[in-house]
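REQUEST
  id: r-88c1
  op: predict_structure
  target: Cytochrome d ubiquinol oxidase subunit II
  payload:
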Amino acid sequence: MDLAYLWFFIVGILFVGYFVLDGFDFGVGMSLPFLGKDEVSRRQVINTIGPVWDLNETWVIVAGACLFAAFPEWYATLFSGFYLALLVILLALIARGVSFEYRHQRDSLKWKRGFDRMIFWGSVLPALLWGVAVGNIVQGVPLDADHEFTGSLLTLLNPYGLWVGVTTLLLFWLHGVYFIGLKTDGQVHDDAQSLAKKLAVPTVVFAAGTVIWTVMIAAGREAPLLWAVIACGVIAALALLASVALNRADRDGKAFASGAVTIVFAVLTLWLALFPFVMPSSPDLANSLTIENASSTDLTLQIMSWAALIFLPLVLLYQGWTYWVFRKRVTRSRMEEAEAAPAH
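RESPONSE
  id: r-88c1
  status: 200
  body:
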C-alpha cells in the first residue's frame, strides 16, 4: 500500500483514539451540573477523570502533529479555513484544564462554582464543534483552485454539520455518563444510570440520522469504500443499542465498552466516507484535496512510519498501565474523608 494511503488511515485511527478517550472526558464535564448535587458528589464526578484527562488530551496533539507532517496541504487548508471554530475549541480546552487544576485551591463556594461552569462549557463546546468540523470535512467545503477555503464561519453552520455536531455531543455525553456509572457508587452511580436512560432516545435518533445522511453523501460521490461506510454505520448503531440495553441491565462495564465501540465505528463511518479525498470541494470536486495531492514526500512518510512503529506501542502500554493503576471506583466515602480532612 502507498504510504500516503497508509497514513490516511493512521491519522484516522489517532482521531478515533482521541474521540473515544477525550469523548468520555467531555461527557463527564457535561454531566457535572446534573450529577453533582453537593460538593462531595461534584468531587466524585470530577475525580473519575482526574488522573487521566490530560493524558487523553495528548491524543489530539499527536493526531494534529501527524496530520501536519503527513498531509501539510490538508493541515494548512483546514486550520486556515476552520480557524475560528478551532480557536474556540482550543480556548474551551484551556478553560477546562485550568478548572480541573484550580477549583480545589480555595474553599470559596463561588470560586468552585465558577470553575464548575468552565468545566461544563469547556466540555460542551469541543464536543459540539468537533462534530461540526468533521461533518463539514466529510460533506465538503468551498475550495478554490489553490485549495484555499473561500467560506466563513457561517458556512460551517449548515444543517449536516450541525446535525453531526449534536450527534457527537450526545454520544460523548452518553459515553461519559456510562464512565461515571462505572467509576462511582451511591447516589452518583444511580443518578448516572438514570441520566443515561434519558439521553438514550435523542442519542439514537441523531446517531441514526448521521449514519443515513453520511451514507447518502458517500453514495452521491460514488465513494469506493461505500460498503465499509455502511458496515461501520451498522456496527455503530448496533453497539449503541447494546450500550443502552446494558445500562438498563446495570452492566456498567459492558455498557461503557459498547459506548466506546459506538464511537470507534461512528468516527470510522465518517472517516471512510471521505476516501479518497481528505477535504472535498463542495462547488467543484476538481478543486478537492485528495490523499495523493495533499500528502508529504515518500521520505517524510517513511521516517514517520518508523517513528510510529517504535513509539506508538510504548504510548499505548503507558496509557494502559495508567488506567490499570487508577481502575478502582471513586467512592463517596473516600470523597467525604477527603472533604473532612484539614487543609495543609
